[in-house]
Design goal:
Blueprint lengths: L2 H10 L12 H5 L5 E5 L9 H8 L1 H15 L3 E7 L3 H6 L1 H7 L2 E5 L2 E2 L4 H9 L14 E5 H13 L5 E8 L5 E6 L4 H7 L8 E5 L6 E3 L12 E6 L3 H6 L3 H11 L5 H4 L12 H5 L6 H8 L10 H6 L6 H15 L5 H7 L12 E2 H8 L9 E2 L8 E5 L9 E2 L6 E2 L4 E4 L9 E2 L4 E7 L2 E5 L3
Parallel strand pairs: 1-2, 1-5, 2-3, 6-10, 7-12
Antiparallel strand pairs: 4-11, 6-7, 8-9, 8-10, 13-19, 14-16, 15-18, 16-17, 18-19
Helix pairs in contact: 4-8
């Protein structure tokens, strides 16, 4: 296949960023770059999804990278890992030499999987503020996304399954592959069930993930893991604090110590993000509030400021998120002239301010949940799946089926016009369409 055919094949397979972003992969690859980075660093603590994907799908990982090279013309390919997964580099050393690929092994720190950090550490280049790796000649993709590329091109297999880790307060911490649309409840049963009376589920990760109490919700193409914690755990309470409460507390308690800024991973990379200045906007109104909010524009929402840095237990991350919403509503952003002055050199103390993963566990009360979630080869066959139509960036997919239709696994059931950014959706099980709602399609077996 030529380049255009490969890109179309990737689009038709419904491949999007499997690491959480959900950007349609065909669009990302429609470019010429110098360097491809396979992101297997697994940024979020407790998760093993990327590690187990690489162990189970090594052949497809290297084949996917080869296809990406063919499309983009990249001369260099690097597979990024954390120190805890150094053995992956040893396992695939001979294969990497055969392909001419390199491994990069970073410290066990958070947020080591952030693409801004990986691009800088591997290439020495910094992505422009608010920019993307493409602007410095790099494409970064999650290792599961790359595996999906290989299966789409070589096996005509669309994205119908998802690697996830299930850990925390469950009987058995596991990683496995489940059909997209499988319910959280079904997934937790596969891990032996929960071990606490009143569970909450962190979706995606302990640092950047959300909190869900509705176990009927589905696994999407972007979900990396399910972490069960007691509903009264500090993290759950922190993540579910209402806006009125964290705003009121921040207004009265922030003493401008600036530790949130000094520990901010983007600030120490030189980007114009200063959470302590954003906290000031709680005391301001009008134009002054808007100007203070500009210090939040390049926040990556990693949560270091809130969960690690702040000695008062305040929530600078959420204040930054609210400030970014204000900027969008007002159409405000930094000017090019401001960025020329404010985009500084990398902080000389940067390496000393990265957060070791053991520190994250101790600070957040997660040490008891630090256990390997090894891959378990289960044949998961849910009776029902709920397939989101909007798990990707871009326009939601439009249904191609109607209630009552019989569908086969792998059949395209929703699509986005090719003149729009988006991604098709495929049936992940054989069954019948039993419901079509605004943002989802339901398939059930044996109806």
């Amino acid at each position: 296949m030529d380049r255009a055919q490969l890109i179309d094949k990737i689009r038709e397979a419904g491949i999007i960023g499997a690491g959480g972003a959900g950007f349609p992969t065909y669009k990302k690859l429609d470019a010429s770059v110098e360097h491809i980075i396979a992101n297997g660093a697994e940024c979020e603590p407790l998760l093993y999804k990327d590690r187990e994907t690489m162990l189970q799908e090594g052949k497809a990982l290297f084949r996917g990278l080869e296809i990406m090279q063919q499309i983009t013309g990249a001369q260099k390919v690097t597979i990024a890992l954390k120190e805890k997964n150094r053995d992956i580099a040893q396992i695939y050393a001979a294969t990497a030499r055969q392909y001419g690929f390199d491994f990069f092994i970073y410290k066990d720190v958070y947020p080591a999987g952030d693409e801004y950090i990986l691009v800088y550490e591997i290439t020495g280049r910094r992505i422009p503020p608010g920019g993307i790796p493409l602007q410095v000649g790099v494409v970064v993709d999650n290792v599961e996304t790359i595996v999906n590329i290989a299966h789409a091109v070589d096996d005509d297999r669309p994205v119908v399954d998802k690697f996830i880790s299930i850990t925390g307060a469950v009987k058995k911490a596991i990683s496995l592959r489940v059909p997209v649309g499988t319910s959280i409840a079904d997934c937790l049963e596969l891990a032996g069930g929960v071990t606490v009376a009143n569970p909450a589920v962190l979706t995606g990760g302990v640092m950047m993930g959300g909190v869900e109490f509705d176990a009927s919700l589905p696994v999407s193409k972007t979900l990396g893991g399910l972490i069960v914690l007691p509903a009264d755990h500090y993290l759950v309470k922190k993540k579910t604090t209402p806006r009125e409460a964290y705003t009121r507390i921040g207004h009265g308690q922030c003493d401008q110590c600036s530790l949130c800024t000094e520990m901010c991973p983007r600030y120490i990379m030189g980007y114009p993000i200063e959470p302590h200045k954003v906290m000031r906007n709680l005391l301001l109104t009008g134009e002054n509030k808007e100007r203070a909010s500009l210090w939040a524009q390049y926040c990556c929402e990693c949560n270091v400021c809130t969960l690690i840095a702040c000695p008062e237990g305040l929530d600078p991350k959420s204040i930054c998120v609210d400030a970014k919403q204000l900027l969008r509503e007002k159409g405000l952003s930094r000017t090019e002239e401001e960025l020329e002055f404010l985009f500084r050199d990398v902080h000389p103390a940067r390496e000393g301010r990265e957060v070791p993963i053991p520190t994250v566990y101790r600070r957040l009360g997660l040490t008891e949940y630090d256990r390997p979630a090894k891959f378990t080869p289960l044949d998961v066959q849910p009776q029902k799946v709920v397939l989101p139509l909007n798990s990707h960036i871009g326009a939601p997919a439009v249904p191609l089926v109607k209630v009552g239709d019989a569908v086969k696994k792998g059949q395209k059931i929703a699509d986005v016009s090719k003149d729009q950014l988006g991604s098709p959706v495929h049936a992940s099980i054989d069954g019948q369409i039993t419901a079509i709602e605004e943002q989802m399609i339901v398939i059930e077996r044996g109806v």
